[in-house]
Amino acid sequence: AAYAGTWDWVTPDPERAGEDRPAADVDHCQVDRLTTVPVRCDFGDPEAPTTIALVGDSKAMQWLPALQEAAGAHGWRIVTYGKSSCTFAAGRAALASAAYPACDAWNAAVMTQLSALKPAAVITSGYAAAGWDGRVATRAALVAGLAQRWTDLRGQGIAVLPIADNPVSPDDLDVCAARHAKDLTPCAFDRASAVARSGAPTQRSAATASGTPLADFTPWICPTPRCPVVIGHVAVNRAGDHLTATYVRTLAPRVAAALETLLDRAPR
């Protein structure tokens, strides 16, 4: 719905939404593009009976607040492995239409750690839409890499819940908010093109190819043909095409329900 009023009605302040980030960012749990050695961070009760791993780039790490919100009630310990601009996939990664070997090395190292950790489930997401096929970056290479990674994890008895990438929001929403302080309606953006520019279409193809259920929260992130920037008094997006930590927390019941359904179906 359109919003009109003063900023004290909205949280976080739309002009400062970039500061509303997950603990994985604040605690330096997400390594940079050059780093090949994974950093593991643990959240929640270390004695919790079920371990859930959250793995991938910043578009995966943005879901941490929802998992933290749900962890206590569901008996989950959350373990994260994050790397900037690096999708968790088999095969070879691409970045800016070139090979991304640091991501490949990180991927291999994370798989080794997950094989030892044996979490009940891996939750993952990502922005990338292409992988490296040895000559060029292609969508088919990443579809194959994602499908293979998810299949390999399930082969180790680890359930997999990929979350569809959120619709790509304009990076200047804070500027738009400053210009339209009395009515944020002009800051809304087209859902169809925003989904098309995201990693979701590639993830959907990989889910179909591998028989992996894909959790898609787009109906709650962008419920109308033009994506509102405020829903229920909460600013939805922050800079860099991410969701605010506050808005992600409001989706905790839906994320938890999707994960519980997956765990209930997983072989014991």
Shape: globular
Strand content: 15-25%
**Count of distinct strands:** 16
Give the % helix. Answer: 25-40%
Distance between the termini: 44 Å
- By secondary-structure content and strand pairing, the structural class works out as alpha/beta
Quote the average pLDDT: 92
Oligomer: single chain
The radius of gyration is 18 Å
Taking the sheet with the most strands, its summary is: 6 strands, mixed
Task: Return the string of H and E elements.
Answer: HEEEHHEEEHEEEHEHEHHHEEEEEHH
| Helix count from the secondary structure assignment | 11
Return residue spans where pLDDT drops below 50 for at least 5 consecutive residues. 1-6
Structure description:
This protein has helices at 23-26, 58-61, 64-74, 101-117, 139-155, 173-179, 191-196, 200-210, 218-221, 245-250, 252-265; strands spanning 30-31, 40-44, 50-56, 76-83, 92-95, 98-99, 121-125, 131-132, 137-138, 159-162, 189-190, 226-227, 230-231, 234-235, 237-238, 242-243. The protein is an alpha/beta fold. Strands 1, 2, 3, 4, 7 and 10 form a 6-stranded mixed beta sheet that branches. Strands 6-5-8-9 form a 4-stranded antiparallel beta sheet. A two-stranded antiparallel ribbon has the order 11-12. The radius of gyration is 18 Å and the shape is globular. The model is unreliable at 1-6 (pLDDT under 50).
